[in-house]
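quick one before i forget lol
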Amino acid sequence: MFLRMLEQTYGREKSGTVFERIFQYVLDGKQLITEQFLEYLNTNLVMKHPNLTPNIKEWVYEIGLPKNSPKIVSKEFSRVEKMADSINLNKNLNLMDTTGFTTHHWLHLLRNLQKDSIKPLMATIDSVYHLTASTNSEIQCDWYQICIQNQYHPADSAIESYLLNVGRRKFLKPIYTAYSKTPEGLKKGREIYRKAENSYHSVSRNTIRDILKLN
């Protein structure tokens, strides 16, 4: 994204020439630290165009994406968003087309579905796309959160098995958080946690105990 920003600011030819030289320098086995890189970039590109403000220091040293971060538009994500909008508005799957779907398509779709809109469609979606039986940890995590939110009980055993077998906090935290939102879910989450506790890393245990109010 940094390269894209430079390209948009200075043009592909000018920015590309500078980076070709830098890459060749590294390929030749020479060491290049951040300060040397910035000095070279400043001398050979930035200072030659003083009317332009690429905010290099913000890109290198600050947190988050800079204000002049390129706006990336994905045709595939736009396609998924239209599907999600249709499902949320019409509460049907008439425009659902998963041709060519990858993990990222599924995650973007699931994260753009509204809980109330999808509730009456849970069984249909699951029977057609077999999301509860998925073996993809990323998709499972997002789908299981929706199942918990909508009290889709056919997924209960799969969710429990998932929590007993995965160890990464990035997967554990959102699911236990979903359980913690209702008294019924909190009880279920605690039951599963007690079975899985000894298999979790201490950092994950502390996080989940806070979520489930066990500390």
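fyi The chain is about 65% helix and 0% strand.
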